[in-house]
Amino acid sequence: MSTPQLSVQLYSVRHALEADEDATLGRLTALGLRNVEAFGFVHRAGELADALDKHGLSARTGHAGFLSPDAAPPADLDETFRAARRLGVEILFDPFVPAERWADEQEIARTAALLNEAAERAADHGLRVGYHNHSQEFVHTVAGVNAFDRFAGLLHPEVALEIDLFWAAAGGNDVVALLNRLGSRVRALHVKDGPVIDDPFTSGAPFDPADTGQVAAGRGQIPLAAALEAAPHAEYAVIEFDHYDGDIFEGIATGVSYLNGKGIA
Questions:
Q1: DSSP annotation of 66
Q2: CA separation (Å) from 259 to 100, 210, 245?
Q3: Which residue range(s) make up the domain with 23?
Q4: Fewer CB in 10 Å around end: N or C, the chain?
Q5: Is 111 exposed, middle or buried (0-12, 13-18, 19+ CB in 10 A)?
Q6: Residue 176 belongs to some domain of the structure
Q7: Closest residue by Cα to residue 58 from 80, 95, 28
């Protein structure tokens, strides 16, 4: 069992980054963070790499959409992978495939095939790729299993998974059992806490992150400690908030302290 490295998804501080990127990155460093997970970087990878380097930060994981070619992605696959490597990313996760694609067995197979193809092309760039879940992937049953398990079973061995524990619970999972099923595929965790809510992405109602009730790690109902133990191959433990009702830096600091207490730094 290896100990994952501590990280934070920069989406958590997106508003602060828009206001003052330099000061925001400095505050993250002051909290003891050395790794971040990047998003929205494809057209500014060099600029962001310089900003991170100034503050002693590395982006070893990142999020970029590359599994929805019908949605006119902002960059082609090779451009996305080149940007990721310029930033220093080692594992690039697609963070969201829409809910309707998880209700159809052929679409699930197509998404898996796209990810397998992306993994082959990413290898030419010295990069690994994978998928980051929300909750919509788990609510439909296909071939006797939930759609996400069906999807995972179609993936090539080199494809990684990043399990968002809050959203996996919202999808109706016992997250520890899920991690045990997925085994060594799980290479990163989003250590996100809060109540166990119902999946909002298939409800038909507009999604408002403020309704999720997310709280600092260790203060909600998600079994984070047991989940960390159930993911021995995870390389990164990533703090993230889709919304935080309070000072976001205090929320992150609490998460850092919680994970430090588990030996994760």
A1: -
A2: 35, 24, 21
A3: 5-260
A4: N
A5: buried
A6: yes
A7: 28
